[in-house]
């Protein structure tokens, strides 16, 4: 094995044991998850703007949790 093979094996190992980051999954509640306005059944946001704002908030929360070592229990 050369250095590239060792690097590849190491990368594959780390990817198999480290947790993967994923997008938050939100359940439909009948209300916009960002502004709280009523939405049709199965919808989560009232418009694209609320959807984008909600996703940005989630990214910020994930960064803060990772930065400060905080984890949900």
Give keywords:
2 helices; 73 residues; mainly alpha; 49% helix; 0% strand
Describe the overall structure.
With 73 residues, this protein is an all-alpha fold. Helix content is 49%, strand content 0%. It has one domain. The radius of gyration is 19 Å and the shape is elongated. The mean pLDDT is 83.
Compact overview of the structure:
By secondary structure, this protein is mainly α. Helices cover 49% and strands 0% of the residues. It has one domain.
Describe the secondary structure blueprint for this structure.
Blueprint lengths: L2 H15 L30 H21 L5
Instruction: Please tally the helical runs, counting DSSP H or I stretches of 4 or more residues.
Output: 2
Task: Give helix and strand order, one letter per element, not per position.
Answer: HH
Strand content: under 5%
**What's the oligomerization state?**
single chain
Domain count: the total is 1
Shape verdict: elongated
Question: What's the helical proportion of residues?
Answer: 40-55%
Low-confidence parts lasting 5 or more residues at pLDDT below 50? none
**Major sheet summary line:** none
Structural class, by secondary structure, is mainly alpha
Provide the residue-averaged pLDDT.
Answer: 83
Intertermini distance: 42 Å
Radius of gyration: 19 Å
Work out the number of β strands. 0
């Amino acid at each position: 094995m050369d250095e590239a093979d060792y690097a590849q094996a190491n990368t594959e190992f780390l990817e198999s044991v480290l947790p993967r980051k994923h997008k938050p999954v939100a359940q439909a509640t009948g209300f916009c998850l960002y502004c709280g306005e009523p939405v049709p059944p199965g919808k989560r946001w009232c418009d694209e703007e609320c959807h984008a704002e909600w996703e940005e908030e989630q990214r910020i929360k994930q960064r803060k949790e990772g930065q400060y070592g905080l984890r949900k229990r």
